[in-house]
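Data availability excerpt. The first of two example chains:
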Amino acid sequence: MTLKVVVDADSGVAPWRQVHDQIVRLITAGALVPGARLPPIRQLARDLALASGTIARVYRELETGGWVHTARAKGTVVTEAADRPGRDALLHAAAAEYARTARELGVDRETALAAVHSAWSALESGSA
């Protein structure tokens, strides 16, 4: 299985977090269905040019969050939807993180919301 994950060294986001968040999005979007196997740690680390320990952390965090389950005979597989956070919970967590970031930047609510509207419009027009 080829897992379509990209790590951007210039993003300012830790590589393990980038991989983690992309896998969560793939699961949430249905691109990785329950029972789908993730690549072995060493293979994914090699494919992404990351340390095995980095990918091991990703898999640990995914398992802690209920996204995957690891069993010796089956490897790491995506769990059933009932075992993991729903789309609404993920959306609210992302919104809370954005609101915290905006506040830390000293941005008021209207400016923060305008940035969301702008980003949404850019996605709809295909320019983001």
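And the second chain:
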Amino acid sequence: MTNPNDSATGFAWSQEQQGTSGLTKREYFAAMAMQGLMANGNYITNYKFLGEESVMFADFLIAELNKKPNHDTPNN
């Protein structure tokens, strides 16, 4: 199960800091999506849309990761 609020790195200095250090998985996935969209060059002037799309892609990825794998379907 991929929890979007879990730490992307899983690293913490101590038990008390667990989950409070660094980016969440959702933030990390959104940042990676934003990086890819910005590399395209078409989104650079529409910052609101860029942010919304990046978060949407992160949420879609988390939803896909949380689906139960279907081992009956052959890989293409």
